[in-house]
């Protein structure tokens, strides 16, 4: 079977052609430009070097995550397009398995006595990871999003570790430093080697694809963000003084509309609020007490940028820190989604709002004259997260 392997799930991008496990050609790119700019030209170069057309391929193998939300979407969209156009099936590949298979054990301890932990930094002491036997790739702890300390404890209690049949841990990927600190905090007394610079290679993707050659239609390939646990964590009500902050749901729309209509002169329409909640590239949080919503914030996500459209606090609850708390929660969520810069506009006379934004790390970078109407200027602000 001849396959084109593709990966854009993290910082590097790669593509290669393999036939029955044998390498024909590949290219690995560490360019700082976005994958949307570099990936398809990279694929074209690989196909040209191989002197092949897409019709000669049997399938496309694509890394579906976990990893960068934006990177995964770019790779999936590109591979789906190529597969549908050529009428070829796809193979979905896990990023953690591809990373594990990209690495070789160069230590003195043999592979049959080693556990490998491919881990990607998911920020805020979390990692996307799995735990496997280094020699067989048998999964010992399933791929998911983990708190690093929780994962360290789970690894510490693996029977193979407890009874000494596996006496070494190798952590690979950019989550290695996070896991190293977690192992130290949780007193994991075993040899731990960290390779933070390890990256997914076309060879690793190809090995994973040939190990699990399940052919599926391009229409059925889905991303494996492994972020459900994070989203559910954020949906849980957590106290901020008397209020609780959580992701908004469609059941909140009527109450958000009441808040908007009572707090600002030009409230958003119902359809706009509904899109904030249901569109995967948008999000909204509410601050609630006893079923009453006193504050909400909405944001649109485009690649690695966020644009805050509205932050509204009920008049009676202003000055109590609700806006600052909900903004901080939103920024935490956006950071987890891979957003790097967040933007907003605020009326130049709205001193209270400007103070909140500055507390949360925003800085002004431009004034847009008459943005809110005659004589009502907007201050444009941004925040790097």
Secondary-structure topology with pairs:
Layout lengths: L1 E6 L5 E7 L2 E8 L5 H16 L8 E7 L3 H18 L3 E5 H8 L11 E10 L2 E8 L5 E9 H9 L2 H4 L5 E5 L3 H10 L5 E5 L6 H10 L16 H8 L2 E3 L2 E5 L5 H11 L6 H9 L3 E8 L2 E11 L2 E9 L8 H15 L4 E7 L3 H9 L3 E6 L9 E7 L1
Parallel strand pairs: 1-4, 4-5, 6-9, 9-10, 15-16
Antiparallel strand pairs: 1-2, 2-3, 6-7, 7-8, 11-12, 12-13, 13-14, 14-15, 16-18, 17-18
Protein model, in words:
There is one protein chain. This protein is 33% helix and 33% strand. Mean pLDDT is 90; it is low at 228-240. It is globular. The strands form three sheets. It has an eight-stranded mixed sheet, with helices on both faces. Strands 3-2-1-4-5 form a five-stranded mixed sheet, with helices on both faces. Strands 8-7-6-9-10 form a five-stranded mixed sheet. It contains twelve helices and 18 strands. Strand 1 and strand 2 form a beta hairpin. It has helices at residues 35-50, 69-86, 95-102, 148-156, 159-162, 176-185, 202-211, 228-235, 253-263, 270-278, 322-336, 351-359, and strands spanning 2-7, 13-19, 22-29, 59-65, 90-94, 114-123, 126-133, 139-147, 168-172, 191-195, 238-240, 243-247, 282-289, 292-302, 305-313, 341-347, 363-368, 378-384. Helix 3 (95-102) packs across helix 7 (202-211). With 385 residues, it is an alpha/beta fold. The chain folds into three domains: 2-93 and 200-220, Nucleotidyltransferase, domain 5; 104-195, Nucleotidyltransferase, domain 5 (2-Layer Sandwich), CATH 3.30.420.80; 228-384, Aminopeptidase, CATH 3.40.630.30.
């Amino acid at each position: 079977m001849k396959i084109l392997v593709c990966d854009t799930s993290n910082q590097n991008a790669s593509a290669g052609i393999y036939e029955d496990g044998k390498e024909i050609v590949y290219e690995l790119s560490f360019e700082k430009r976005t994958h949307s700019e570099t990936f398809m030209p990279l694929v074209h170069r690989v196909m040209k070097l191989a002197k092949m057309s897409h019709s000669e391929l049997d399938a496309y193998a694509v890394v579906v995550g976990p990893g960068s939300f934006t990177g995964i979407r770019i790779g999936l969209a590109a591979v789906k397009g190529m597969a549908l156009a050529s009428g070829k099936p796809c193979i979905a590949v896990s990023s953690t398995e591809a990373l594990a298979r990209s690495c070789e054990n160069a230590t003195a301890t043999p592979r049959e006595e080693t556990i490998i932990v491919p881990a990607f930094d998911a920020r805020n002491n979390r990692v996307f990871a799995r735990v496997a036997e280094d020699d067989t790739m048998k999964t010992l702890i399933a791929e998911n999003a983990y708190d690093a300390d929780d994962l360290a404890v789970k690894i510490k209690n693996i029977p193979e570790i407890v009874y000494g049949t596996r006496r070494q841990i190798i952590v690979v990927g950019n989550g290695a430093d996070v896991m190293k600190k977690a192992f130290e905090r949780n007193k994991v007394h075993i040899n731990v080697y960290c390779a933070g610079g390890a990256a997914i290679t076309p060879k690793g993707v190809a090995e994973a694809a040939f190990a699990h050659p399940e052919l599926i239609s391009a229409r059925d390939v889905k991303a494996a963000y492994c972020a459900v646990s994070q989203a559910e964590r954020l949906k849980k009500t957590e106290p901020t003084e008397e209020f609780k902050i959580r992701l908004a749901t469609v059941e909140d729309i009527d109450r958000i509309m009441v808040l908007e209509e009572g707090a600002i002169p030009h409230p958003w329409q119902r359809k706009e609020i509904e899109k904030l909640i249901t569109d995967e590239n948008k999000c909204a949080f509410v601050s609630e007490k006893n079923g009453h919503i006193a504050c909400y914030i909405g944001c649109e996500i485009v690649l690695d940028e966020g644009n805050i459209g509205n932050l509204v606090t009920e008049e009676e609850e202003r000055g109590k820190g609700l806006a600052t708390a909900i903004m901080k929660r939103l920024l935490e969520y956006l950071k987890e989604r891979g957003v790097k810069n967040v933007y907003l506009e605020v009326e130049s006379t709205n001193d209270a709002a400007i103070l909140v934004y500055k507390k949360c790390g925003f800085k002004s970078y431009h004034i847009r004259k008459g943005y809110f109407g005659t004589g009502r200027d907007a201050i444009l602000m941004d925040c790097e997260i």
